[in-house]
Amino acid sequence: xxxxTLRSIVLCLAAASAANAADSKFTLxxxxxxxxxxxxxxxxxxxxxxxxxxxxxxPVYGPTGKAMTRAFPMEEVPTETKVQRDHYHHRGMxxxxxxxxxxxxxxERGTHEPGLKNAKSGGSAQTRLDLLGSxxxxxxxxxxxxxxxxxxxxxxEYVDSSGKRILTEERRLTFRSSGDSRSIDFDQDFLATxxxxxxxxxxxAGLSIRVPASMAVDSKEGGKIVNSEGITDKDAWSKPAKWCxxxxxxxxxxxxxxxxxxxxxxxxxxxxxxxSYGLFTANPFASKQYDKELPDGAxxxxxxxxxxxxxxxxxxxxxxxxxxxxxxxxxxxxxxR
Length: 337
Description:
mainly beta; Beta-galactosidase, Chain A, domain 5; disordered N terminus; four-stranded antiparallel beta sheet; single chain
């Protein structure tokens, strides 16, 4: 009986989603900086390809038109205090990894350059700068709008400080809107096109979104983290889970971000590098850096092989319970990705 009830909920949600999405009209606009996505004449997200050492989405707007990403470092706004302007590299929504083939795409120049002025940390800051790599946009292979979605497909190259390629990524972003929610599928295939490549065991790695400052648990305005196992707030850090949800106040409304990990994704269920100050990352690469008692999680992708990541972000009203996140995950998990 319980399974039948859950199945009915999932089918109803899917039907409602399809009906609402069919009424949506997506628009993609490409320029020198990337692609902007709008739905029904309203902004959804900007995909930026030329502002730092990796592509990123910013801003991203939820179903009520409120920004669902922190403004810093792209903008400094009065609603974000100096304390909340931490971690320069936490730009909107992005993927990065502290060490793929020895090169760091997690951080960026703005992360370490301030440390050069400090006599004690200047040496380590320069070392980190010397190891900076880039995720370089090569080309868009598809920019398409359908009745119910918009798609951005892209080829990226991971390069070292000299510009030498170490890895290729095929990336596909799919945007949908369905009444009370908006979603972005972030599908990634990492191809070892230039020989074997090693993904090191690093906690600072994975697909991330930096939530609005007011939503962060540490802001003490009502923000909350909960995962599929019922673990909440700070205790959710490093724990494996099928999904994780971050919710809280944004400009007078209670909104949330459900972050879903597909069963076909590498090391499902992923571990979550989710922080009470607002970082929200799905990171299947770390093991020992999360817990010294665990084995080293470094992974080598052999020449010609690939590693696959599949995730969905759902921007919703209310908290995880109000948004029916378990049912959203159930529907997503049954899709072929």
